[in-house]
Amino acid sequence: MVRLLAAASVLVLAGCASQRPDLSQEEWKLREYKNHNKQEVIAAAREVIRLSDPSDVNFENTSDGFNATRTSIGFYVVANEIDGYSFNFVAQEKNGVTRSRLEIEETEINQSLLTLGLPVGKNGKPDHPYVYELFYARMAYLLGDKAEWYRCDDAVSRVSARYGLPNDARKLGMASICGKFSDDNIPNSTSKKVDLF
After folding, report:
1. DSSP label at residue 73
2. Number of domains observed in the structure of the chain
């Protein structure tokens, strides 16, 4: 009986410590807005990405959103890093509800003496939902739905403390917005009123 209770306790505690409820990777990327039109949602999304690194973000408008790229190169005495991120944001309005979807692609390449000058890195999508949560929390701030803008240091520290993970934006999959080369700008009062074009 004691063993059964101990096993049940372990299962309950493991369930409480899980990182996310049963959300699929597809659900990380989606949000719905009932009080904001398509143009407002697209403008807020664009501003979140622009503020992450204003000098290195390039936008291409689409009929339902935008594509954006951000590339940063760091040269050091014995190493270099190239980080490239692409964002595809789509918003569609139907029956008074604006549905949005964000796709992020990451390319992170390093070369150093440790790799004998050979490029090593990764290419793909974020492994965790944290960057999507930060992105949409910042959008909610710009849309006036939340009172707090989360800075990168705060967001990474909160995720790290809450889930017992490394305090590192890259390891948490948050480098596309909070990476080493990000500016982490805070919006001022004028950035809340961004025109789409």
Report:
1. E
2. 1
Q: Considering the domain boundaries, does residue 145 fall inside one?
A: yes
- CA-wise closest residue to 191 among 130, 135, 138: 138
DSSP SS3 for 102: strand
Tens digits of per-residue pLDDT, 69-90? 999 888 888 888 889 999 999 9
Q: What is the pTM of this model?
A: 0.80
Closest CA to 139 of 168, 167, 95, 101: 101
Cα-flanking dihedrals φ and ψ of residue 186, to 5°?
-100, 135
Q: How far apart are the C-alpha atoms of 88 and 101, rounded to whole Å? A: 8
Across the chain, mean pLDDT equals 85
pLDDT per position as a tens digit, 91-148: 999 999 999 999 999 998 888 888 888 888 888 999 899 999 999 999 999 999 999 9
- Domain that residue 168 falls in: 20-185
Average pLDDT over residues 142-163: 94
Q: Compute CA distances 62 → 67, 90, 164, whole Å.
A: 7, 8, 39
4 in a structural domain: no
Asked whether 39 and 53 are in contact (CB, 8 A), the reply is no
Euclidean distance between CA atoms 92 and 135, whole angstroms? 18
In a domain, 9, yes or no: no
How long is the chain? 197
Is 28 within a domain? Answer: yes
Q: Is 195 helix (H, G, I), strand (E, B) or coil?
A: coil
